[in-house]
Amino acid sequence: MPIQVGIIGCGVVGAAIAYTLSQMPGVKVWVWDRRLPQAYEATGAALGVLMAVSSPKLKGRHLQLRLESLRQYEALIPRLQAQTHIEIPYNRQGILKLCFSVDELQRWQAIQGVRQRQGFGLEIWNAVQLSEFYPELMQARCLEPPMGVQGAIYSPDDRQVDPVVLTQALLVGAQRQGAQVRFETEIQAWREERGEMGEGSDRTLTHICTPQGDYALDWLIVAAGLGSVPLAAQWQHPVPMEPVLGQALQLRLPRPWRYPQPVISGNDIHLVPLNAQELWVGATVEFAANAEVPRADRQALERLYQGAIALYPDLAEAQILKTWSGHRPRPVGQAAPVIKRLSPYANVILASGHYRNGVLLAPITATKIQQFLCP
Ligand SMILES: Cc1cc2nc3c(=O)[nH]c(=O)nc-3n(C[C@H](O)[C@H](O)[C@H](O)COP(=O)(O)OP(=O)(O)OC[C@H]3O[C@@H](n4cnc5c(N)ncnc54)[C@H](O)[C@@H]3O)c2cc1C
């Protein structure tokens, strides 16, 4: 009998888990999602910036996860493309991070040494070097506090990927490997078995109940983003998470810009090149007052747009093609992401709360889940 694994949620995290687990011999994967196939939650709002090497962190679990996931992407993308024949937009030009103070540039020297030892390149450019390579960025400014550009960090190994196309490819790949995916199926019911003690890890979740029938399971993976909160609460295992709103824009430039080129980042605003004349700009980071769900605020979007114009003045004449927003799942009281056994069950694992880096961390999350199944 194959090992039966159920996954709740197929945003980018659930899709990566489904793809990885369905490669394992003797494992049968089921995926359920309440959404329509084309209607994404957090994953549909993401810019897909894979910022690992140019993260300012020097050490720690989060940095290790970021770097390891970035490494995995290099093999994952060509493999998925070959397997599914889906062209996945994947920017290999790196990330160019603009710096607005000399102090900031100097701080990067310590990080550069650490990254070299970790096997990654990181270049620190002063204003003269930046003007040689990217003269069009010499007018870049930071609005708050008002400062002109002093140089840049160029990270050739960081990447950017289209999150929706990636998720579609992961699901197609998973299905080719035998996974069964069911949309428009919200999971609200299950059956369990209690051991003699009736408590703690003595309990096992045995079935997921859906309108199409009950599915017997050996393992359940909860990759439901913010939807993991009500599920965990019903199991008396609260996993506090707050929705943090992000807004973004797609713009069309009045004239072509350099293409291909790296993601340009400055003052926590990303300019993500899509083609010779279009780009994504994002994203705001908006917290809710009074523990409510934050709503898109037009002033915050306008500040984002003005901040982007300060980085690249041609954007003042750009046409706004679309704007959108989404909620990032941010864990409260514990570090992102939350990948752990979810008591009281011995066979339920939570893989949620990826906050601002769910696209980046999806491959390593899938690897961690695989290690739970085969320690
Ligand atoms: C504006 C914005 C920009 C971002 N940019 C980046 C970026 O550049 N790089 C990066 O790495 N990350 C970025 N992120 C973060 C990233 O989007 C998230 O971390 C990531 O998408 C989380 O993926 P997920 O699969 O956990 O969640 P989701 O995409 O929310 O997927 C969860 C799925 O679970 C389903 N679900 C929930 N409850 C149930 C239930 N009971 N039954 C069935 N299905 C259920 C939902 O329908 C949903 O499809 C950004 C986020 C935003 C909002």
UniProtKB/TrEMBL annotation:
It holds the Pfam family DAO. Keywords: Oxidoreductase. Gene3D superfamilies: D-Amino Acid Oxidase, subunit A, domain 2, FAD/NAD(P)-binding domain. GO terms for molecular function: oxidoreductase activity. InterPro entries: FAD-dep_OxRdtase, FAD/NAD-bd_sf. SUPFAM superfamilies: FAD-linked reductases, C-terminal domain, FAD/NAD(P)-binding domain. One of its GO terms (cellular component) is cytoplasm. Residues 5-366 form the FAD dependent oxidoreductase domain. The keyword Oxidoreductase applies. PANTHER family: GLYCINE OXIDASE (PTHR13847:SF289), SARCOSINE DEHYDROGENASE-RELATED (PTHR13847). This is FAD-dependent oxidoreductase. It comes from Petrachloros mirabilis ULC683.
